[in-house]
Amino acid sequence: MADAVVESAKRAAAQQAVRDHFDPSATHVGIGSGTTIVYVVEAIKEVSTNLAIRFIPTGYQSRQVIVQAGLTAVPFDSLPEDTVFDVAFDGADEVDLELNCIKGGGACLFQEKLVAERARKFVCVADYRKKQDRLLTNWPTIPIEVAPVAVPTVLKGLRTLGSTNPKLRSTLLDKSGPLKTDQDFFIIDAPFKPLLIAEDIKAGKGKGDGSDGTWEVNKLSDAIKGLTGVLEVGIFSGLNGPDAEAIRATNSVKTVTSGQKPVAVYFGNQDGSVEVRTAK
Ligand SMILES: O=C[C@H](O)[C@H](O)[C@H](O)COP(=O)(O)O
Hints:
It is a single chain. This protein is 30% helix and 19% strand. It contains 8 helices and 14 strands. A 7-stranded mixed sheet has the order 3-2-1-4-7-13-14, sandwiched between helices. The structure holds ribose-5-phosphate (R5P). Residues 32-36, 90-93, 103-109, 112 line the site of ribose-5-phosphate (R5P).
């Protein structure tokens, strides 16, 4: 029963996100991975079955969702580098007050980041369990995609950064060994204390650079990304819509996109309502 509530929360959020952000005259639309994105594609299909719209998947599962819906899937690396997508939709494992996200619970994060960064608008859809004030409140770990040969190096590096017990993710059948990503890489799940946001640093709640055991979202993301052997980190932070708009205005850069951080996150609630957090 609880599952049915969660599923209808995801569907309600997806319906509203698509109503607000999918323009049927779009030419390129990014499609993320996971269980919630299925409802996004379902909602898109109710509005448009236009085969001229190019849907860019973020991995194998994502491509299957697009293809099974009868829509046109186009590989990311088949598009010219300056193609900006109208919008990219995706799920999230946890979202904080600043709209920073943890992603990669389903082992997809690298291609999701590539696609999100190319989109003019990056929009996330999730259920009520994902809405928190700080990252690592309910979701326990940061997923990190690593080169198999570098696993011991990265585990050691993560412990140095303060992660108490980072672990290599196994398949559900433990005897099959480590789970492989779409890139044939591995995933390490690293626990840290809940991550600080900018207002916490201003309020003196910690330095946020790891020196006192606290980490601010962007600083931890950069520190993990700096470990040799890390392909990508499942922290989606940094610039989002309004910031990107400001850069576009001052630098006359025409292709500045949404960045890694969503401009809006749609949360489906248990009572069927939908709550939207938008970039300030
Ligand atoms: O690795 C998976 C992706 O980052 C998903 O978008 C994320 O885990 C959310 O998935 P779901 O919609 O199934 O909660």
